[in-house]
RNA sequence: CGGGGUGUAGCGCAGCCUGGUAGCGCACACGGCUGGGGGCCGUGUGGUCGCUGGUUCAAAUCCAGUCACCCCGACCA
């Protein structure tokens, strides 16, 4: 991407009403645009990050058999009546609206019921199970109070996956498979080291659910972790979980964390509530075991901003950065060289943000840091005289001089 | 939803107390000087002061209502 063609611009100051660091930096750097409280639009740079996060999740879920779908945002009342979750007393985050003939409909805050409703059409026999479906979907939740920038909005993007099984054992086994896939996702997203599978409040079927919690000062949760990192428990279930695990509560230390994933088992409850059954070997109707898995895509983006940012701006992990290289060009003579390098790298499939604007060097350096691009390559008349390129690592600030072959070797 | 706070140009702010024809910085446009860390000088563009009503000869300023936004709490399969 050539910056001269990018319509967003960087800001010196964040809007005063934006207190959350993630939103401040993302707005200043031109990654998101605030539409209203808890609602953000993603501009080209921000969209690239989202797509990179989605790509990783898509690959990992695809690798364990997940089939990608897209459900709808408009949902019929009848679907939700079946599980008693249509009423606003049962679910206080509903957005509801009406068709022109006064039929009430709901705007999707989750797709659990909706997925089951659809799958009922296809799952008839034990031969159709297990089934694994997932989607990247906008969730709409009428939160009383939006906060923390893109970490807790009224509209956000989530990957939700659902697995349907004939037996609890099969469901349990796949549940573990998903946990491993999720771990690989967080690893690739760059937050593997600080993300824990934790015990959290359960639901109708299981005593605990599992949350993926990332250590982060901006998080809303408190996590209790032991020294060897083998046990992590959400504060909300600390006593119960410690007792269950036979762990001495006093050996667990509290840390602030942000929930980046939540998985849980429904057992057959959802299937029974909705009267969705399959036919077993003996021709009998049986309920389906269901488990549900969610990764907050936009939230992960916010957490990563919060977690790695420094006083200069965002620091993206390499795999999700909108580009690998930020190419700074200074002076007149070196322009052709920079143009050529840009074409060459892009031709090799290396994503480059080329700062070809008529700006002073300081502006370009500052913006490259604010945007958090992992590596900066500087091409200038001065460097060109020595046939050198400057190579700077965003996270460390380390700068080295390289010849063209050295540079290309480093980038490929 | 309870408590607290804030709304003046795209962004950051002053002006309000003590009513008298709206200002600064950044950004933007043009010109010039600069040219390796948000540079400088000059000339410009851009605002029914959130909205509605009231008081007044006169309201950004005083009063009432309302909307929006932010923070704390509650909530958060």
Write a structural description:
This protein is of the alpha+beta class and 412 residues long. It has helices at 21-29, 44-63, 77-81, 112-119, 168-189, 238-245, 269-273, 297-308, 335-347, 361-371, 381-385, 404-411; strands at 32-36, 39-42, 67-68, 74-76, 95-98, 104-107, 131-140, 155-165, 195-201, 208-215, 221-225, 232-234, 253-267, 277-279, 285-287, 289-296, 325-330, 352-355, 375-380, 389-393, 399-402. Helix 1 (21-29) crosses helix 8 and helix 2 packs antiparallel against helix 5. The longest helix has 22 residues, at 168-189. The relative contact order is 0.13. The model has no long low-confidence stretch (mean pLDDT 95). The protein binds one RNA strand of 77 nucleotides through strand 13 and helix 10.
Helices and strands, with pairings:
Blueprint: H1 21-29, E1 32-36, E2 39-42, H2 44-63, E3 67-68, E4 74-76, H3 77-81, E5 95-98, E6 104-107, H4 112-119, E7 131-140, E8 155-165, H5 168-189, E9 195-201, E10 208-215, E11 221-225, E12 232-234, H6 238-245, E13 253-267, H7 269-273, E14 277-279, E15 285-287, E16 289-296, H8 297-308, E17 325-330, H9 335-347, E18 352-355, H10 361-371, E19 375-380, H11 381-385, E20 389-393, E21 399-402, H12 404-411
Parallel strand pairs: 3-7, 17-18, 17-19
Antiparallel strand pairs: 1-2, 4-6, 5-6, 7-8, 8-16, 9-10, 10-13, 11-12, 11-13, 13-16, 14-15, 19-20, 20-21
Helix pairs in contact: 1-8, 2-5, 2-8
The structure holds one RNA strand of 77 nucleotides.
């Amino acid at each position: 991407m050539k910056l001269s063609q990018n319509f967003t611009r960087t800001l010196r100051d964040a809007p005063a009403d934006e207190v959350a660091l993630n939103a401040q930096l993302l707005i200043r750097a031109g990654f998101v645009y605030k539409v209203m409280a808890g609602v953000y639009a993603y501009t080209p740079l921000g969209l690239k990050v989202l797509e990179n996060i989605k790509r990783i999740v898509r690959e990992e879920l695809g690798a364990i058999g997940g089939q990608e779908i897209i459900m709808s945002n408009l949902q019929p009342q009848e679907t939700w009546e079946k599980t008693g979750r249509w009423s606003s007393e049962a679910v206080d985050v509903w957005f509801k609206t009406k068709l022109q003939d006064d039929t009430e409909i709901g705007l999707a805050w989750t797709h659990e019921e909706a997925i089951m409703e659809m799958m009922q059409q296809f799952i008839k026999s034990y031969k159709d199970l297990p089934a694994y479906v997932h989607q990247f979907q906008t969730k709409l939740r009428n939160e009383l109070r939006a906060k923390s920038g893109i970490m807790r909005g009224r509209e956000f993007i989530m990957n939700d996956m659902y697995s349907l099984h004939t037996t609890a054992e099969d469901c349990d086994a796949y549940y573990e498979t998903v946990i491993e896939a999720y771990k690989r996702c967080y690893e690739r997203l760059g937050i593997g080291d600080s993300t824990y599978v934790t015990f959290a409040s359960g639901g109708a079927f299981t005593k605990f659910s599992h949350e993926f919690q990332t250590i982060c000062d901006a998080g809303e949760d408190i996590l209790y972790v032991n020294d060897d990192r083998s046990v992590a428990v959400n504060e909300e279930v600390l006593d119960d979980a410690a007792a269950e695990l036979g762990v001495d509560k006093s050996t667990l230390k509290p840390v602030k964390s942000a929930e980046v994933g939540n998985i849980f088992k429904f057992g057959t409850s959802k299937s029974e509530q909705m009267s969705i059954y399959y036919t077993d070997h003996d021709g009998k109707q049986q309920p389906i075991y269901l488990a549900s898995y969610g990764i907050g895509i936009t939230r992960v983006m916010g957490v990563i901003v919060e977690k790695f940012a420094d006083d200069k701006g965002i620091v993206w992990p390499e795999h999700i950065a909108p580009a690998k290289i930020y190419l700074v060009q200074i002076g007149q003579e070196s322009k052709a060289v920079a143009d050529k390098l840009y074409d060459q790298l892009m031709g090799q499939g290396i994503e480059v943000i080329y700062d070809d604007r008529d700006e002073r060097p300081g502006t370009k350096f500052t913006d490259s840091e604010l945007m958090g691009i992992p590596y900066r390559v500087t091409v200038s008349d001065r460097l060109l005289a020595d046939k050198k390129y400057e190579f700077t690592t965003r996270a460390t600030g380390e700068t080295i001089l390289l010849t063209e072959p050295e540079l290309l070797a480093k980038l490929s």
